[in-house]
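Key idea: predict the complex, not the pieces.
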Amino acid sequence: MPNIDRRDFLKLVGAGGVSVGAGFMLREANKDATEYLIPHVVAPEDFSSGLATWYNSVCSMCPAGCGISVRTREGLAKKIEGNPAHPVNQGGLCSLGQAGLQVLYNPDRLTGPLKQTSARGSGSFEQITWDEGLDQLGSRLDLLRAARRGNRVAMLTQGVRGHLAQLFDNFMRQLGSQRLLHYDFNHPHTLYAANQRFFGQDRLPYYDLHNTRMLLSFGADYLTNWISPVHHSLGFGESRQGSSNERGRFIQIEPRMSASGAAADEWLAARPGTEGILALALANHIVSEGNYAGADRADWAVALTDYTPAKAAEQTGIPQSTITRLADSFIDIQPSLAIGGGAAANHSNGVDTLIAVNVLNYLAGNIGQEGGLLLNPEPTSVVSQQQQASYSTLLEFAEAARQGEIEVLILNGSNPVFTLPQASEFREALASIPLVVSLSSFLDETTAMADLILPSHTYLESWGDDFPEPGMGFPVGAVSQPVVSPLYNTRATGDIILALARQMNVGTALPWENMEECIKDGWRQIYERGDAQTLAQGFDSFWTSVLKAGVWGETAAGDSEFTLDRSVISNLGVQAPEFSGSEEDFPFILHPYLSPNFYDGRGANLPWMQERPDPMTSVVYGSWVEMNPSTAKELDLIEGDLVDIQSLHGTVRAPVYLYPAIMPNVIAMPIGQGHQEFGRYAKDRGVNPIEILSPEIEPITGQLASSATRVNIVPTGRRSKLVKTSGTSRDLGREIVQFADVNGVELSSAGSNSIPITEVTA
Amino acid sequence: MSLFSRFMDGWRKYRKPGYYDEFDYHWTMAIDLDKCTGCQACMTACQAENNIPIVGEEELARGREIQWIRVERYWEGEYPNAKLSFIPIMCQHCDSAPCETVCPVSATYHNQDGLNTQIYNRCIGTRSCAVYCPYEVRYFNYYDHHWDSPLEQQLNPDVTVRGKGVMEKCTFCIQRIREAKDHAKDDGRRRVQDGEVQPACVQTCPSKALVFGDRKDSESEVSVAINDPRKYRVLDELNTDSSVFYLKKVDA
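Result:
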């Protein structure tokens, strides 16, 4: 269980209201700010000069769903902090979450509705009014609906949860369209599929890092971008030096050291895509050593016969002795937990790999155990997980567009032109759609291709709600409330949808005046399903306390059980991964990873994130390609040499960075830079490695196998200066970071005084 | 007072400018390197709280970045045994601060709370302090920095925006300390309680690696932390008597 159990959580929620502004006052302060040139004579109640007012809301910078408290002064947002009462992040917040302020106050925001006046992508827009914009779109939609051709309307949105997702669903149903696509580049399709097969549940379990004493991570960069990084960081800290006397042990298996790899006690590089084989070899050793006593022991032994440690050592490149040692300690050190994700899950065998990881948890008895993996109960009253569209689904959509089956595309926050490989030909497919409308707040690559832009408020200006997935062992929800008055002539996404619904005369099915009412109505239903104690307080008081606390937990939820489907055992197996391109022509495997600064590219327009050194390399403002120093030596390359990275599907050019912890036949590139649009801070900076990815897919889920591209490196003979904040990357005997053993006894510094190979520059 | 003790007193005052017989508070930070994940959330929190400007790529390439707190990274060993360690470094608020003795105009001094503080409008920009600081945590404003409108609306009204020619550095979020003291006074309390004040970096740390508090309160979380056998101070051999304690990374 997380640090906060259900009882503590209720206490926190009760106490959370102290000195926190309640949203219902906000409407007063929310009137058009431009009306007040001079300070208020009679100010709204939550608005006093010199005093800060805090509003609790929800972070929307990534899908983790952390709770935030926003400090406002004189009606302006000043700082975002984590909401201490929210069980996901408990007060902590990552860089990207804090940089949400620069989304709100970004100089490149779209300030009002626009209409493309010449060819798409030419960038010539003219300002129009909301009535014109809504009319143009609404009348088109109404015609299509009346002609029963609503399915020719598609909506492509970034992953949205809560009542906004429900509103989208409802709207598209009224329109008669099945084409509502939620798309996030980083959505873990393979993880959902593997857990569905193993546990028979469509939701993710809770991974209890807080209490685990042994974590085996197969590629999951849980501290940076895997599911809920702030929550995992909290668990990591607690497991390392928390209340328990035994320090948690962390082992990371991945071809290129991530932040989680750096934090681990042991970092191991298995050949890319063989992580699942490694997991099964561990399982084989556990069963063959008699460390699993379940009734189905014999079945497992049969299913695992082919995965002996000796054989796996050959396939994965990890020594047999290491495999058996890991397997033994996974049983000996309890509670233990195995997780999988990142590159390991993005191969052609992704689902099987993650099933193999679950097998380890099953055999070690970690399922349902504190410090292991806790199954989340079925939420009884929250609207939670939306269906995400996979890469294959988007390809089908693009094909439909090319066939002329799509007449209107509504985009909401999703930027597929940037986050899909060029091989998908998505940009070209857009050309076949007669009307493309974007609700984005920024002119991103896809929005630049739109005919009509109806810009949304940012999340700090709108009403919304979120139900984090996975739950915390119990379902959690939070209302997102506006913390400042809207800066520009923009509208909340929900309000735009509701206005369109009215335009189409389907207002009876979507009866709300605005998003605030819709959210409030949704929460009234949650309230009505509450227990007697909840009902006794009345809805208004319930609503106020949810807003004040910034979080609400469904504490009455039941427990969840599972029985293993026997077919998991009989179907067990991990195939060798498939790569695109031959090893002779393309000797390197490209390992693209989400930049810790920009997530999937959405943070690249934030100056704080641009100037924040990359945690591992300290590079700022650019792209780079990481390679092992020995590889660089072979190719006669040094830091800053520009190289072409060529795949079967394209070429990008980036300077070399010598990365000490990457396999010699793997090269890594961060995702996030390389925008052609998206404002002054992002535009024309670095390159986007997604462009050259091969369109390999994981066959079960249709997810893009983004780690399955082989590339060649071609030196260009040119150089570029890598801008970074670090000087030497070594300690050089200064003993700045010091080490101790578990008892706190000082260890002599292993730091070398000589300048290593990575430091040799021109 | 004997001649000797007068001499010693004078020596102590020379060694510790603004020497106090006793601090009111003794603000101290402890950073557990075994918990630090190098995520740099602390850096962004600091940037937001303290109106730290963006200098741009060109200035950064010339080493003119401003980062009151930064995370340093040190590699050890070569593949496949390469290891990476992170350490957040900010002003160490030394009680024998080398920067304080060299300022020709006493723009940097030690205050009543054991903080090394910088008086911006006294600073004449000689940059001597930055030269003397062994931790390299003082940052100079080579220009008047600019916020592309409307980014300036985010600026914290409780913190000065520093102009050209002025040195700046971590203050342990002195504006938050002041606010906490004011609250304590308004409540009729004499002292700020443990946990009542947290600098922005400590508040946001996802893994709770940073702890802040008053070392004079022996019960405080930070006092407990700095009694850990793993405690050490960076470049302690320089006798700077710094107020930032690190807990060694465990190598198991």
